[in-house]
Amino acid sequence: MSKWLMSGLIAAACLFGVYLLVAALPEKEEAADRSPDFVVPERAVDADASMQIYQSLCISCHGDRLQGAVGPELAHVGSAMTKEQLYKTIKEGRRGMPAFEKRLTEDELATIATWLAAQQ
């Protein structure tokens, strides 16, 4: 009798878990339609300032010609990511990449994100 009771409780818990997963998932269209939380201000690409930042913080993982090494290639990252996505990734880090929020100013973050977005 206790085997049936335990099996019933486990089955009920599994069904409840599946219900919670299905009911709590947002629609994919909703997530895709959201605008970014912020917009990186429009600015001219400052290659010199960007290269200084890149050489001091990024070159060891992404290579001296954006070819990638430990980190991914950045030579054509502008065609895959928006300026806002690049800004957020650099600021917060991601999948093994450290966050640079405390090491770069907002202006420096916008400068490097704008430069990388131009890499197409």
UniProtKB/TrEMBL annotation:
State whether keyword NADP applies.
no
Q: Report the domain of life of the source organism.
A: Bacteria
- Fetch the InterPro entries from UniProt: Cyt_c-like_dom, Cyt_c-like_dom_sf, Cytochrome_c550/c551-like
| Assigned keywords, A-Z | Electron transport, Heme, Iron, Metal-binding, Transport
What Gene3D superfamilies does this protein's entry cite? Cytochrome c-like domain (1.10.760.10)
All copies of the Cytochrome c domain together span 45-120
Q: Which SUPFAM superfamilies match?
A: Cytochrome c
What name does the UniProt record give this protein? Answer: C-type cytochrome
State the species of origin. Cohnella cellulosilytica
